[in-house]
Amino acid sequence: MIADFSWIRPEPHGIHVVPADCWIDPSRAVDKALVTHGHADHARGGHGQTVATPETLAIMKLRYATDEGATPVSYGETIRLPGGVDATYIPAGHVLGSAQILLEHGGEKVIVTGDYKRRADPTCPPFEVTPCDILITEATFGLPLFVHPPITEEVGKLLKALKDNPDRCVLVGAYALGKAQRVIAELRAAGHDAPIYLHGAMERMCRLYEELGVNLGDLRLVADQEKDAMRGSIIVCPPSALNDRWSRRLPDPITAMASGWMRVRQRARQRNVELPLIISDHADWGELTRTIEEVNPHESWITHGREEALLRWCQLHQRRARALAMVGYDDEDD
User: Other C-beta atoms within 10 Å of 290: how many?
Assistant: First the structure.
């Protein structure tokens, strides 16, 4: 008979691993944190000890200027925590360094996925399906309407807009960690070898990706260029800069946005996006349900998004599930 898993408790500000007295992705500073990846709704500074992949620790050092108490754990490596708990970090396929955390205690297995996707991504290792007793899954795009198209189609739209408008530029809004680098890498994979120009806020993370082994090709800062030199080019910026005064220095930009939320037309209109690109670093509805089927846990705990629909799907498919009430989770401009 499977136990009640009282040794792991979902709290409003994080997952508490009770025997080890540590927290997974806590939204406030704690003595010991296990972190799945570097996005701000999962990672933060101020912890006494932070356990994460080397890539995530490097990202956290860059973003939060902290590396005290950093404990690196490689993919596939198991560490022993106090109270007889083992933790293993497994690729999540979300962004560089992202990991699922497999926790084992008393013969019971729990996986905290963090954020994840099932599509191939040239900037990070793919998600690995790992059987467990309890799967704690995100549900950012946990509605049936969210079906992400192949990224080759979206990159094709971007390149077509560029070809059809040689005297303009295409300005792509993309989240600074993960999305921007993936868009650039996919453009390179599609044969776009021309310089890609960056808003200044994107440079440090792109350079860190390159230091960590991800080749992004010829990247140049917008601030270093003459306006006419960027005609017929792709420029990547934070979503907040799409309609900012900064964009006025660009040659008649076509505004694009790379996000899973571009499936919702109202979101594109709200941001004055001319070219919506449905590119997400999260699992869509079909990938969420397929993951539950393939992992086949005794019970699924659902958090971080559209919990009710995925909970209902589990119920209709005779799968035990519960929704968690967590705080501090945002859309990440995905």
Answer: 14
Model confidence at 211: pLDDT above 50: yes
On whether residue 58 sits in a domain, the answer given is yes
| Same domain membership, residue 166 and residue 39 | no
Task: Kindly tell me the sign of the dihedral angle through the C-alpha atoms of 279, 280, 283, 284.
Answer: negative
Domain span at residue 81? 8-145+282-323
Domain identity same for 89 and 110? yes
* Alpha-carbon span 70 to 315, nearest angstrom: 40
Residues near 244 by beta carbon (within 8 Å), at least 6 away in sequence: none
Please determine, for residue 2, whether its predicted confidence score (pLDDT) is greater than 50: no
Q: Residue 332: inside a domain, yes or no?
A: no
Residues 46 and 131 in one domain: yes
Q: What is the pTM of this model?
A: 0.94
Does one domain contain both 98 and 221?
no
Q: How far is CA 68 from CA 30, 45, 46, 49, 333, in A?
A: 13, 9, 9, 7, 29
Q: Which single residue is written with the structure tokens 């106090």?
A: 82
How confident is the model over 148-199, as pLDDT tens digits?
999 999 999 999 999 999 999 999 999 999 999 999 999 999 999 999 999 9
